[in-house]
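Q: I'm building a small set of examples for a reading group on sequence design. Run inverse folding on the following structure and report the sequence directly after it, with nothing in between.
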């Protein structure tokens, strides 16, 4: 019997008898099979023991050299290492306090080449100690005068970053490594700084003696985190501060408590809740498919002449005397309407030519008052409560969902936009701040707290971002209907993400990791959902259906042990079935068909990206020992039309090729699962492999050069060839050795050709200036933004020349001027004809009153003819308006492409000025501002 046929149980016994760590590491380095049997996370062990790894080594090999690889061995004084350095166990980052006010930031993975010096001399003359907190994203810097929080993501201190000024005999503790910082001291008391809220959340000075705190739970063997629930408990002569309740964990079930019907078919996203009567509580309001607004338990019906696309409620602040009703905000395919239900009047009515797809109410940027933010086609409008414009901006894609979130912690909300494109857009001051690439259109955005928001894609993917970092991402088979914060439990300030799916499925997940706590199924096609907050009672989740049915659920905290036992038994039954199937395979290998061919232990898989101008970008997968490949599953974002792409061979072969044609220039990782099996064998093996795809992976390097394209941009900034070479090697499929040899600034020039569009991209350095040449401005913009982000360029001047762009801009502006003139003329004619119809109707009614029946008949015939003409002219007008809207989309896309050639404030100012000129219909000045004629 070969060792490959030994059951894993026997190997586990062998491994348990290994007493020397070097033997365990050596066994783990034999193959992936033995690596899994060892059941050790060597990467985590290296981080816990601060063992560094060199480039090209495995973590198991690095840990096997623990005695000589410990990070403190490269520092002369061990006391200096213990007192001045810290290693993050989550990321492997190391912060080392050097002499005076400098901190060295590096990583135990030396292959990453991360070495950064942080200068704190502007804050203090001496850094005494450092702590790595918030999973390696922030640094706690101790000095003789204060304790400072430094953001390692943005490399800056944020607002409210100073925890406290230093006084005598202070002690600082980091609790749970990512939540709270506790400061105590004699005659000082206790101070708690929350890393989540980024402010001091608890302060109790005590001048009589030392205040003690209790944050360790002996039963759970871990520290507790601060949850706004500290109480004082006296113990003899000194107080002890401790948590009033344990950290809340969602247990229980969702029980149905509401079930009734409106009696009307409802529209999608047309459900909200508010208070419209002083004698009643919260009332559900919904929009019907027959263009009506209806209220729960009310006979009041408000008719709207257009299809309803969205309903929201504006909660007005209550006055000292008298009741103030909430306002109903209705979005339709052509307008925005605000109703005062209590007083039965329309507050204002705004025409919105593109129609409304989503509405959000809240504070945005520096605006102190609430703003009604409307997503209308490819534009976003900000409107105050008098119906006046606050701001207007446009995107290149249609808007699906919007929400407000202070994602950069500056005290002002940014606008998070989910669109039909592949990115989630973050806007600040109506300008694009950042694109978060997800690969599929985003249909739902929900703010979960400060700096945190959840998203849902039309492919069934949901996830959560916090400060540009994606916490988690889960793929499902269902279509998302809504994302909500539910339930909210007293004593726990942690928000839970409630996902309502279109098929009626509801689940509650942890915002931090996506763990599914609760789930239930309310069968039916969901049209909308809303959470009803109730004082001193459990929140209710109300779900509406297209057939008019309304069902509500709330959290049942009584844990059903019997139901839990059934789920546990089902889980163990499934495990038993899997183990029995595995046992059958072992028995068949030992006593079954000896002639059956297995897969040799030394079988390996190679994966190579091959880029040629003729064949394009190919992914070549090869398995050694002539083992046939049954199928390959590829998982990637933004490359395939779906998240998974499968390849099946018509004939058994150990080599498989597939063409990769990215939708756009984006860097991503391809996760491959290769299913292999020997000929005639019924057992298959799954091999996994990760392949990184550079941003410009479809551009083939032209060794002999190529004719220079006509369009170009000339960039002037502080240029460093080593950084430019590094950017080139990491963003293109090019030989690194060839790039490293390009050190001559006088002859630095590279040419590429896209293997699909056949367009040439040329990058050249001339007299210290960088020239990027391509015929399409959008490609040049992507290259420029990639370079400045990689090289961290802060200031740059640019000069561009793109004839095709300039020609398209001139034609578009000329056509828009004609369309505005035509629309004004059509609108004037339509208004004149409408007034003539009204006059004719009045004359016809007068004729009826005076018994002139014959005259009245002629006048009504004329009214019918005029009405048909008016309807036809209105259709022409609306077609012209739609054509103008399409031109506006194209123009905003040109503005965005032009702004990509600039950075920072220059780009923001360009966008702001162009939109002001566009709103003022000053097309002559707009054309000059967007000119790219090389001057």
């Amino acid at each position: 019997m070969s060792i490959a046929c030994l059951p894993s149980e026997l190997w586990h016994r062998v491994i348990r008898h290994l007493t020397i760590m070097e033997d365990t590491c050596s066994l783990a380095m034999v193959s992936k099979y033995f690596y899994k049997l060892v059941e050790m996370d060597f990467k985590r062990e290296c981080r816990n023991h601060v063992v560094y790894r060199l480039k090209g080594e495995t973590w198991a090999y690095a840990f096997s050299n623990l005695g000589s690889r410990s990070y403190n061995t490269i520092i002369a004084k061990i006391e200096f290492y213990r007192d001045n350095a810290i290693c993050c166990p989550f990321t492997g980052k190391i912060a080392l306090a050097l002499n005076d006010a400098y901190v060295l930031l590096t990583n135990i993975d030396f292959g990453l080449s991360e070495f950064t010096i942080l200068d704190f001399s502007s804050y203090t003359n001496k850094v005494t100690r450092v702590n790595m907190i918030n999973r390696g994203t922030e640094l706690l810097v101790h000095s003789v005068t204060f304790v400072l929080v430094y953001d390692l993501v943005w490399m800056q201190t944020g607002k409210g970053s100073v925890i406290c000024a230093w006084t005598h005999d202070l002690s600082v503790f980091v609790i749970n490594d990512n939540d709270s910082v506790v400061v105590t001291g004699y005659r000082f008391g206790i101070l708690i700084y929350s890393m989540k809220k980024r402010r001091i959340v608890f302060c109790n000075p005590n001048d009589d003696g030392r205040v003690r705190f209790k944050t360790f739970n002996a039963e759970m063997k871990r520290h507790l985190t601060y949850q706004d629930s500290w109480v004082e408990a006296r113990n003899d002569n000194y107080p002890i501060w401790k948590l009033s309740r344990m950290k809340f964990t969602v247990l229980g079930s969702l029980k149905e408590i509401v079930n009734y019907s409106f009696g009307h078919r409802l529209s999608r996203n047309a459900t909200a809740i508010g208070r419209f009567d002083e004698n009643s509580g919260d009332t559900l309001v919904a929009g019907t498919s027959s263009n009506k607004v209806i209220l729960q338990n009310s006979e009041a019906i408000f008719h709207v002449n257009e299809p309803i696309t969205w309903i929201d409620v504006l909660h007005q602040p209550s006055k000292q005397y008298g009741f103030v009703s909430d306002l109903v905000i209705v979005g339709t395919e052509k307008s925005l309407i605000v109703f005062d239900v209590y007083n039965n009047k329309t507050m204002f009515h705004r025409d919105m030519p593109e129609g409304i797809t989503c509405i959000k109410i809240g504070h945005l940027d520096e605006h102190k008052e609430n703003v009604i933010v409307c997503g209308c086609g490819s534009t976003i409008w900000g409107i105050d409560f008098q119906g006046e414009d606050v701001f207007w901006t446009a995107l290149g894609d249609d808007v699906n969902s919007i929400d407000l979130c202070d994602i950069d912690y500056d005290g002002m909300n940014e606008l998070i936009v989910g669109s039909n494109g592949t990115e989630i857009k973050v806007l600040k001051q109506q300008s694009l701040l950042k694109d978060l690439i997800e690969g599929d259109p985003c249909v739902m955005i929900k703010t979960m707290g400060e700096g945190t928001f959840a998203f849902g894609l039309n492919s069934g993917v949901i996830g959560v971002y916090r400060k540009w970092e994606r916490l988690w991402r889960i793929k499902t088979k269902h279509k998302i209907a809504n994302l909500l914060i539910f339930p909210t439990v007293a004593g726990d300030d942690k928000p839970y993400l409630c996902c309502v799916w279109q098929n009626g499925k509801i689940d509650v997940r942890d915002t931090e990791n996506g763990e599914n706590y609760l789930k239930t199924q309310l069968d039916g096609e969901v049209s909308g959902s809303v959470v009803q907050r109730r004082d001193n009672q459990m929140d209710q989740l109300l779900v509406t259906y297209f057939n008019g049915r309304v069902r509500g659920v709330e959290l049942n905290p009584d844990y059903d042990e019997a139901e839990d036992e059934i789920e546990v038994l089902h889980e163990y039954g499934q495990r038993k079935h899997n183990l029995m199937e595995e046992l059958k395979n072992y028995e068949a290998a030992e006593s079954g068909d000896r002639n059956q061919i297995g897969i040799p232990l030394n079988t390996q898989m190679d994966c190579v990206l091959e880029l040629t101008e003729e064949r394009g970008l190919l992914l070549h997968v090869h398995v050694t020992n002539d083992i046939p490949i049954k199928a390959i599953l590829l998982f990637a974002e933004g490359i395939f039309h779906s998240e998974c792409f499968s390849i099946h061979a018509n004939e058994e072969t150990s080599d498989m090729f597939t063409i990769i044609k990215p939708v756009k220039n984006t860097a991503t990782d391809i996760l491959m699962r290769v299913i292999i099996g020997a000929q005639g064998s019924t057992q298959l093996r799954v091999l996994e492999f990760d392949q990184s795809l550079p941003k410009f992976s479809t551009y083939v390097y032209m060794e002999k050069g190529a004719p220079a394209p006509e369009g170009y941009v000339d960039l002037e900034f502080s240029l460093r060839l080593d950084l430019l070479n590094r950017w080139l090697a990491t963003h293109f499929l090019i030989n690194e050795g060839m790039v490293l040899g390009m050190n001559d600034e006088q002859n630095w020039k590279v040419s590429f050709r896209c293997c699909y569009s056949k367009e040439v991209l040329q990058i050249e350095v001339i007299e210290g200036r960088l020239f990027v040449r391509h015929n399409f401005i959008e490609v040049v913009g992507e290259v420029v933004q990639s370079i400045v982000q990689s090289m961290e360029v802060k200031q740059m001047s640019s000069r561009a020349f793109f004839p095709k762009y300039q020609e398209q801009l001139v034609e578009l502006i000329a056509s828009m001027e004609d369309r505005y003139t035509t629309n004004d003329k059509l609108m004037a004619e339509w208004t004149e004809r409408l007034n003539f119809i009204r006059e004719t109707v009045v004359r016809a009614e007068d004729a009826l009153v005076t018994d002139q029946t014959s005259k009245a008949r002629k006048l009504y015939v004329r009214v019918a003819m005029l009405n048909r003409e008016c309807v036809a002219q209105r259709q022409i007008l609306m077609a012209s308006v739609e054509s103008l809207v399409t031109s506006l989309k194209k123009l905003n896309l040109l503005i965005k492409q032009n702004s990509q050639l600039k950075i920072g404030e220059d780009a923001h100012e360009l966008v702001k000025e162009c939109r002001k000129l566009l709103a003022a219909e000053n097309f002559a000045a707009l054309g000059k501002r967007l000119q790219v004629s090389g001057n």
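The chain is about 25% helix and 35% strand.
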